[in-house]
Design a protein that fits this description.
The complex is a heterodimer of chains A (about 350) and B (about 130).
Chain A (H helix, E strand, L loop, with lengths): L4 H19 L3 E7 L2 E7 L4 H19 L7 H7 L7 E2 L2 H16 L9 H7 L11 H8 L7 E4 L4 E4 L12 H15 L5 E5 L2 E5 L8 E7 L2 E11 L2 E7 L4 E4 L2 E4 L14 E8 L2 H14 L1 H9 L5 E6 L3 E5 L7 E2 L7 E5 L2
Parallel strand pairs in A: 15-17
Antiparallel strand pairs in A: 1-2, 2-6, 3-5, 4-5, 6-7, 7-10, 8-9, 9-16, 10-13, 11-12, 13-14, 14-15
Helix pairs in contact in A: 2-7, 4-8, 5-6, 7-8
Chain B lengths: L3 H4 L5 H20 L8 E7 L2 E7 L7 E5 L6 E6 L2 E7 L5 H5 L8 E4 L4 E7 L7 E3 L1
Classes of the chains: A alpha+beta (about 350), B alpha+beta (about 130).
């Protein structure tokens, strides 16, 4: 029997190879929520239980935050616009409203969660997208003013002061969902995962071998190609661009990121803005706000802070990467005519 | 304590059999654990989470057309060797049709109104783990 011992030992050794190749396969789920496609991939820790718990958390938030779900907290707030009722809401929703208002104050004119009536006038929330008439657009614009949204954090309640006003959390909900999904995954001992909420990527930890995740930024002019690839760990990359949702009327292309100052699609000279931050909500909100702000204002705002980094793609085919991303970034669109520059403080 | 095998100078037939078995098994495992074919590209079509079609794009000899009447907005998928696209969709946004052909593992076509996803998988990847945008 002893001569067979080496045989079984070899078998044991070889079976180790099989186990190793199996380990690289993550537990993963892909699902539809918040009007987009989401996927969660978990490489360690609680696996299947972890992804299901994270998915449920995202779906719970969708029900809470959706403007199109009639029994959501946001629908309750909107339905009481102008009638004086202070609507009690979940503390987490109140915090999100307060956060969105703080971004409006930091970047006045570039970001406003009360833009919903204008989005509706353009039909971006429905199936019929069209250029609104001047009358309907100016009527909708009169309802956009986030200073008329009262948020009472102590009472955990909020109020829209003018009838017809509406809040839409489309520019912050995915970031909030990402922060909650990450918290749930970490409660399940996950330290290596990728959360993709409609193109907002949250990298949890790094890969199992300790190297950072490689996250490509989509080329806004050729969405099947990469503009550049970033190295991320414990960070969120959030991108906004006109290419994501748009329609054409009389030969003109109209995209869905509305400039709160004009009521028209933002014409800032940018094709896309990617914000990288360890704060998921900040990354989400700033990608929209800085797309509206434009290159110069976006870089000036970046220089005033140290909690995020940027990739800007301009209409004249320049890709501006801020210096915090320089290590571990690689350009990928030179053959498509892009030039790359590093912005410094 | 010395084993009987250790006392012998020459290997026996049985020793030879063990060597042979180990070599054979190693060969089998090398075959089983080999990386899948470099050029293999599989397209999986899911409608609201359920797989409705699957194509080995690299092995597709003739173009294939798939019309999904059961979708909320009926659509037509076209596949040919190495690539796949949504040729027509009744959906309002048309984002899926605009995506055009996809051919590389990791790429996806998504039709949100239909909750339809076409995703490509295979051994070769573009060298990144996720895409933002």
């Amino acid at each position: 029997m002893k001569r067979f011992l080496p045989f079984f030992l070899c078998l044991l050794l070889l079976s180790g190879c099989a186990a190793l190749s199996g380990e690289a396969e993550p537990a993963q789920v892909q699902f539809f929520s918040m009007d987009t496609v989401m996927s969660i991939r978990v490489y360690d820790g609680g696996g299947e239980d972890a992804i299901q718990a994270a998915r449920q958390e995202v779906e719970r938030l969708d029900k809470l935050l959706s403007r199109t779900t009639t029994d959501s907290e946001i629908s309750a707030l909107n339905s009481h616009a102008g009638d004086g009722t202070l609507v009690s809401m979940e503390p987490e929703v109140i915090q999100l409203l307060a956060f969105a208002q703080s971004i409006s104050q930091l970047l006045p004119g570039d970001f406003d969660i009360t833009i919903a009536p204008v989005m509706d006038a353009w039909g971006f929330t429905t199936e019929e997208q069209h250029v609104p008439s001047d009358a309907s657009l100016s009527a909708a614009m009169a309802l956009v003013d986030s200073s008329l949204l009262t948020v009472d954090e102590e009472a955990s309640a909020a109020r829209l002061e003018q009838a017809g006003m509406e809040v839409d959390l489309g520019a912050v909900a995915k970031g909030f969902a990402a922060s909650r999904a990450e918290a749930v995954l970490r409660e399940h001992d996950v330290t290596s995962a990728l959360v993709d909420l409609g193109g907002n990527i949250t990298a949890i930890g790094g890969k199992l071998d300790g190297s950072p995740w490689q996250v490509a930024v989509k080329d806004p002019q050729n969405t099947s190609e990469a503009l550049c690839v970033l190295s991320l760990s414990d960070q969120t990359a959030s991108t906004s661009g006109g290419y994501e949702r748009y329609f054409e009327q009389n030969g003109v292309i109209y995209h869905h990121i509305i400039d709160p100052k004009t009521g028209y699609p933002a014409q800032s000279g940018l094709l896309s803005v990617t914000v990288v931050s360890s704060n998921q909500m900040l990354a989400d909100a700033l990608s929209t706000a800085l797309f509206v702000a434009g290159e110069e204002d976006a870089l000036a705002f970046w220089r005033s802070r140290d909690d995020f980094e940027l990739v800007l793609c301009t209409e004249d085919n320049r890709v501006i990467v801020t210096e915090g991303l320089e290590a571990g970034y690689r350009p990928a669109g030179e053959e498509r005519g892009y030039t790359y520059e590093i912005a410094r403080r | 304590m010395r084993s009987p095998a250790a006392e012998r100078r020459r290997p026996t037939v049985w020793d030879g059999l063990v060597v042979l078995a180990v070599v054979l098994l190693a060969g089998v495992l090398v075959f089983l654990l080999r990386p899948s074919e470099g050029s293999a590209v599989t397209a999986v079509v899911t409608l609201d989470g359920a797989v409705v079609a699957q194509y080995r794009l690299d092995q597709l000899e003739e173009p294939a057309t798939l019309t999904l009447q059961e979708a909320s907005y009926p659509l037509t998928i076209q596949a040919e060797q190495g690539r796949i696209c949504i040729a027509h969709s009744d959906c309002p946004s048309q984002d899926c049709v605009r995506t055009g052909w996809i051919s590389r593992p990791g790429q996806q076509i998504i039709c949100l109104p239909n909750r339809l996803i076409i995703s490509l998988s295979g051994a070769e990847t573009d060298g990144f783990d996720a895409v933002t945008g």
